[in-house]
Amino acid sequence: MASAHVLPSLDEQFEFTGESKRRLLIGVGVGVALVAIGSYLLASGVGEHTHEVAGAGDAAGEGHHYKWTTRLWANVWLNAIYFTGASVIGMFFMSYNYLAQAGWTAAFKRIPEALPAYLPYMCVVVLATFFFAGHDLFHWTNPGLYDTASPDYDPVIAGKSGFLNTPFYLIRVVLYFVLWYVLWRVLRGFSLQEDLYGGTSYYEKSIKYGTAFLVVFAVTSSTSAWDFVMSIDAHWFSTMFGWYTLASWHVTGLAVITLTVITLKERGYLQIVNDSHLQDLGKFMFAFSIFWTYVWFSQFMLIYYANIPEETIYYRERFSGYGGIYKAPFFINILLNFVFPFLVLMTRDSKRTYVILKLAAWGIIVGHYFDFYVNIMPGTVGEHGGFGPIEFGMILIFACGFMWSIASQLEKANLIPKNHPMLEESLHHDI
Amino acid sequence: MSDITGNGKFLVGIYDDDDVVLKAVKEVKNAGVRIHEVYTPFPIHGLDIALGHPRSRLGIAAFMFGLSGTITALLLTAYTESFDWPMIVGGKDSYSPIIYVPVIFELTVLFSALGMVGTFLVSNNLGPTVKPLMYDLRTTDNKFAMAIDLDKNNLVENDIEQILRNSGAAEVNVKQF
Which residue of chain A has the CA closest to B63? Predict the structure, then answer.
């Protein structure tokens, strides 16, 4: 409180130590080794269901000869989409805080600011995956579907060709990443200059560009969700899907921000972040876990109630299709993303306890990986899915890369935005 | 308030500034005076901690009201849809709880909201026939009032008045209920 008016030092330089770098490199190395082992096992057919049941023709597998590499690429795609979301949410968080002129987040603003630096790498991975494995992952890229003379002709997908065609798809994907990244560079630039020169002009400009990003993201968050995830099951569609994916990305990003803030605080940085900041971050995770559940359930219930076959097939595949292998991830998804954070983060004390906050954040991060797993895997690998070395290795590679990217961004600037006009308010945040 | 004992005689210190009243609470308490309550036109951060109020139990009350709504909704949907007049909608069993989640959710919210309104009225002594206790009308405008229950303090009136004035009170009045 105001009684002790001794301000902590605002000069804090994060150091990305050689030890941390070594650990992350080991993590990537282990990940690569796991992926290699997993690939070898898959290529030699270990653990594959050898019984080739005739007539297993689900929409995704139709007209395709299944190759083991599909599972490899599906994993790359899954992680790329998941981490694209986690990083772009850093920009989303900054933008709505600027628009709302929220003060309390100023103290740890450099953490969300560091997340979107991972986007260019994810853009390369997404484009490369589409280039090398687009035909294996996306049924709609099969040209026969649009040719009335072809036996593969599919009037439903052909009717969507105005949107689902490769050139337009690639333009959209590049556009998402360029828009998100460029607007982030602008805000990041303002933020770094503000550190040097001070004043409120950078803050006012940030509000304008942050708002522009929100307008862009309002559209692109939905369309990118269709492109990245929903178009895998091209016959099926849900009007809730954009919101649903945004909710999933958002709560993941909030968990990453919370976890990073606590980790930094435990290492002696960000001492100006107090229990009230952490309680508010906990509230954010709690609230948006419920928001995710709300959207997830709305989508599920409408389809369940209406009982239209072309819609229920989506849940049928996940619930009991492919020998029921997606039933466990389907329920883990709901337990980790709703029940766990709802019960754990409900009380005031739990949101002020580091251990519980970290536990909840990890639960959310793992849970939303399962969310994307359940959405992406059945449509791409179907009955060949599972949890093996490839899955674990791929997560490890992407996660270590993400941490490396965050840490090297944090190192580039003072950890506290010392000339941020709202910093004084944030220092006295008390709820 | 309903917990007035004895003859209900109060000393009311009037303060002009929120920082002063917050500081005064600590000083008055340190001088050994028991404070009945502080009335302010707007919430002051840290005031309830300075007064030593126990943690609010509103959360527990809200949870209980919500839970009663959940149970009511479960019973209502089960009774009407599968017992009183069983109906099959969309090929589902006559009682499929998933369908009624919106009803259950809404009644939970409704019960906790109405319950909290009732709690607010009761705990603040508000109602059609109740005359609210006002220690000083200006606390609804721009003044801060600290009420001291004389029956619950061992110090004499003049000493307490002096302590209040020393802590920054602009005026000290006597209020009898």
Answer: A346
